[in-house]
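User: I'm putting together a teaching handout on how multi-component assemblies are represented. Below are the sequence lines for each component of a complex, exactly as they appear in our records. Could you produce the 3D structure of the whole assembly as structure tokens, so the students can see both representations side by side? Please keep the chain order the same as the input.
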Amino acid sequence: MSSETLAQPLGGRIQWLRRPRGIARRSPTFAAGLIIILVYGFVALFAPVLTPFDAINAFPYHVLESPNGRFLLGTDGNGMDVLSRVMYGTRYAFGIAIPAVILMVAIGVPLGLIAGYKGGILDEVLLRILDVMRSFPAIILALAVVAATGQTLVNVVVVLGLVEAPIFARVVRAEVLALRSGGYVEAAVAAGNPVRRLLFVHIMPNAISGATAQIPLRMAWAVRASATLAFLGVGIQAPAPEWGAMIRQGAEFLISGQWWVALFPGVALVGIVLGFNLVGDGLHDLLDPKSKTASK
Amino acid sequence: MAEPVLSVEKLVKHFPGQTRGETVHAVNDVTFSLFPGETLGLVGESGSGKTTIGRCAIRLLEPTGGTIRFRGRDITHLPESQCRPLRGKIQIIFQDPYRALNPRMRVGRLISEMLMLHTALDAKGRRERSLELAERVRLNADLLSRFPNQLSGGQLQRVCIARAIASNPELIILDEPTSSLDLSVRASILELLQELQASTGAAMLFISHDLETVSFVSDRILVLYLGSIVESGPSKRVFEQPAHPYTQSLLSAHLPTDPEQPLQRHLLEGEVPGPINLPPGCPFEPRCPVAISECGLAMPEARLLNGEEHTAACIRIDDGSNTLPLQR
Amino acid sequence: MSLLEVENLHTHFISRTLNDELRVAKGLNGVTFSLENGEIMGLVGETGAGKSLTAMSIMGLLSPPARIVDGSARFDGIELTNMKREELDQLRGNEITMIVQSPVSSLDPLKRIGRQLVRIQQVHQDISKAEAHQRAVEMLRTVGIPNPALRTRAWPHELSGGMAQRVLIAMALINSPRLVIADEPTTGLDVTVQAQILDLFLDLVRERGLSAIIITHDLGIVAHYCSKMAVMFAGRVVEQGPVRTVFKDARHPYTRALINSTPSRVARYGHVRSAGGAPPNLYDLPKGCHYRDRCEFSADICATIPPEVHLDSAHLASCHFSLNVPWAAEG
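Assistant: Of course. Below is the structure of the complete assembly, with chains in the same order as your input.
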């Protein structure tokens, strides 16, 4: 079988779909994950238009109704439509995860860069701090801090951002160390580059690829973490349509048989975490520099 | 006699070993000078210290002992901030061009970076000069817009050469510049280097394990073994009349690319030991076929051979028994 | 019948870009050569010429996206390219063995070398552990490792470069193969160690009447350790023949340029336009002779595939001008 006969691309006529198809072929994981996240994102953006009811619109005469024609996913203990609440929940998910991850990157990456490059005392101190932080379960730490500082959205975001920033610092530090030992960084030093240029022009762009791969994974973590906090009664609380809070409320009703109140927010949570994790895994396939056709 | 560009005196460089308490004696008491327009070859195998010497000369490493002078100025313990301005005058070309260049920068930008760091040219001036430099190293101008991994080894090494000469250096260190290149391109790179030296007048320190390559480009050669100079002299002489037993065996191990030429080998036992626990005497003594008990007592002094600046550090020269017997 | 017959072997790398386009890199484009019993052949060429790829194709070690798309490789008359995995496994490590450049990839870092030597025997022969161990010690002694009995307990990372290479040779020869393929066996070793390893290899091969292919880019090795040589460029064998003949009377421009590009020859004959230049783009090779873009004697006829010219029974060259070479003979 010659290579020419293998040269028939699928549906080659649709030119503009080539790149997405190429990406999907290389990493179905990435493609699947991305589609999931895009769907959630779409819902988050257009929630007011898509939802049949308002998220906190209570129907006192329709409390705890099982899924039916009017309330497709049933109603909760306050008579609010579960479907609408689940859909609005996407806003909370993204609204917490995105700022939290931005904070993680903003703190972790520069720290990792400096510690990795300078070495010495700075590096040792940072390493010890990272070790200490890693020895605490992040959720417990976040729990304690939010409970102490106040249960606002901002506090939750800030705490989550701080607690997971060490991961970015570690990843970036490792890459910087790898780059420093013989390689073009040594050549750049020999060329006469000042430290500023070394860090920002030569080291950083190549060191952040590991960090980039972490971003979707941390997003997944942030969504889970905030849901966990809410479930435990810390952070976002009812009647806000946050999935964790919804599951907290719905847990009471599981015993009495009203399964829909807790299940659907749970499924939504699992779905978005799955989506982010697939994107994270798939990103690795795409960015693998060993592959000849990896994107730059 | 003109002032030497580089003058190295009793250079010592030690590294902490892998296990506690161990020291790697990479360079032990090396002294030499390099004059403008001259090419000095440093030859040796693994553990000889040649790479370390090169790195010390450009101050990528700080010597443990001894002195390094560049144009008379003591640079041995200069802090990094003061080394930086020197980098325009001392340049280095590494063995593997793929590892020496930032993979995310286009080749043209990598060349103009040198101009930006060491000249006062504006963007337009840098662009023009980059084109000139590319032409000078016989690199096709189209390639300047490509990334390093899109060029072949030979082409990329030309980029590195262009970078090295961009700032008009007075001293260029070449650390095995052709060892990772295919044979077919080596000769042309070596020729290019010779040409550039003739036109720029820069002094070159050519480091290699290949005696044939080194003798082709160098005026003088230093043969190194476990951090010490065992032989030095004009390259033609050392190549044709090696005095030190190690130089002889090194030369004989080289395979001529002519099947008609018979092999005359001095085969050595064992391998080059690591430079960790050095014996007190001649470092080559454990493997030397003509060693006697006195060899292990003290480091041999360099002996002058028939004038002409050819020296070798071997006590067996004194009674003429330094020539190795042939095998095969 | 020759021991190894490779005929018109084509190996391509077939992949898709992110833009969903098909890309084909033509690694081997019709490799043909044969190896007789007891011959030692040197396979030379620059990076990307296809030397290692040829060995991998013969041994059935290609992994996607590489695949053999045409041609054949016959060992003792048996076709290798369409062999089932189980049959190949019986041949590899047994009758055909390979020594690779970096011992790190051949030696299991988690097993002592004695155990690896025993294991490779047990896989292919009906032999007791004790006897296999005995043979392992003997083999280590043969390849010049001091204290072989003690050394069987060594871990791979404890070995120096030269020693590791000797162990690889031991592993390659312990099952008495008939063909050994050595891929750049001495690259990276010190020159003085290289000499020892090559001499050892040559002695063992001759002593046991084996055939060998030495893949290298070092013409010196070919000149002194091989009886026959094949020069590759862009996936084709452009010239092959007895070593002395090819060195003295090269009939392909690339071979000639290669031989003349060593520093000593440049010093002797003055500058010869080197064989260097841009490596051929395997995704887009020129039609006809693949060397024409770099060849100083390129002419219109080179747009057609050059014929295989038989200069005598053993010396072949693939150039339109092989019979009447456009260069003066050199002494």
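A couple of points students might notice: The domain at 4-95+175-317 of chain C is CATH 3.40.50.300 (Rossmann fold). The longest helix of chain C spans residues 191-208.
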